[in-house]
Design a protein that fits this description.
Radius of gyration: 21 Å
CATH class: Alpha Beta
Shape: globular
Order of helices and strands: EEEEEHEEEEEEHEEEEEEHEEHH
Number of strands: 19
Strand order of the largest sheet: 5-6-3-10-13-8
Number of helices: 5
Number of domains: 1
CATH architecture: 4-Layer Sandwich
Helix content: 10-25%
């Protein structure tokens, strides 16, 4: 079991964890009595007897913010396409209990100790998996309008704040880069998983009419400038979904051109056309 250092006056619950698997991972959280973990809907895998599930409004990170504050905090989640509600898992018994959360598609689960990121980590809106109760899950607002209008996948980012443990998911193979002060890195907006709050980020236009029309990539990329840590994924879910949709047969059964050197041209030749 990996355990966080003993910090004084910690607001978030202190949780232990283990990550299992290779291509399809899951994280097992060990909860002491009265400890809890929060998660997005759909990530739950299994839990021991004695753990209580409770649907909460927002992320439950602040108990004394009042009903208006809770509504405002939860309402921001609508902008990221997430639910107003999250699920909390409490250990109600006297002994240790375990609850597990699975990655949504092949990739790696990344443990983020927020105390190592000055209390804030910024990630893609669909990268968050689960976190210790007390960690705030919100939206990272950009000060530049261009990011919102043209940033595509890379604009709407979530921020994880607090002093607890959080877990994010990277699709495919995960790359970790530690940028030096002034060092820059350009990343496809969909391949960007998350980065430290010390990293300056912006959205840039690729430029060039041929790049825009025939490059096969998006029109924009994320420009990241150090210092700080950046996590990149080789398989964004949007890219995986696009490939699945593109390969899906238009009629029942297998595509006639599938597996042949002619591919889609084979369908055209044999008259299997649907417009």
């Amino acid at each position: 079991m990996e355990q966080l250092p003993d910090y004084n006056q910690r607001n978030a619950h202190e949780i232990d964890f283990n990550i299992y698997g290779e291509e399809m991972q899951y994280v097992e959280i060990e909860l002491d009595p009265q400890e809890a973990v929060i998660a997005e809907a759909g990530s739950f895998m299994m839990m021991d007897e004695g753990i209580k599930m409770e649907t909460i409004f927002g992320d439950g990170s602040q108990k004394d913010q009042g009903i208006f504050g809770k509504i405002l905090g939860a309402g921001k989640r609508i902008l990221t396409g997430e639910s107003l509600f999250m699920t909390a898992f409490y250990n109600e018994l006297s002994g240790k209990r375990h609850v597990s959360f699975a990655s949504p598609y092949p990739g790696k689960i990344i443990p983020i100790d927020l105390t190592h990121f000055n209390g804030k980590f910024i990630c893609q809106k669909d990268a968050f998996l689960c976190a210790a109760k007390g960690v705030s899950v919100g939206i990272e607002f950009s000060k530049k309008l261009g990011r919102g209008l043209f940033g595509g996948e890379g604009f709407i980012m979530q921020k994880l704040e607090g002093d607890g443990m959080a877990f994010v998911h990277a699709g495919g193979t995960m790359a970790k880069r530690t940028l030096l002060p002034g060092e820059t890195l350009r990343v496809d907006t969909g391949c960007l998983v998350g980065f430290a709050s010390s990293v300056h980020y912006d959205i840039e236009f690729i430029g060039g009419i041929r790049n825009s029309l025939f490059g096969g990539e998006g029109l924009f990329f994320a420009k990241l400038e150090g210092p700080g840590t950046v996590y990149i994924q080789s398989l964004p879910f949007s890219r995986l979904a696009d490939r699945i949709i593109a390969s899906a047969p238009r009629t029942g059964g297998k595509r006639k051109g599938e597996g042949s050197v002619l591919g889609g041209l084979g369908n055209l030749i044999d008259g299997d056309n649907h417009f």
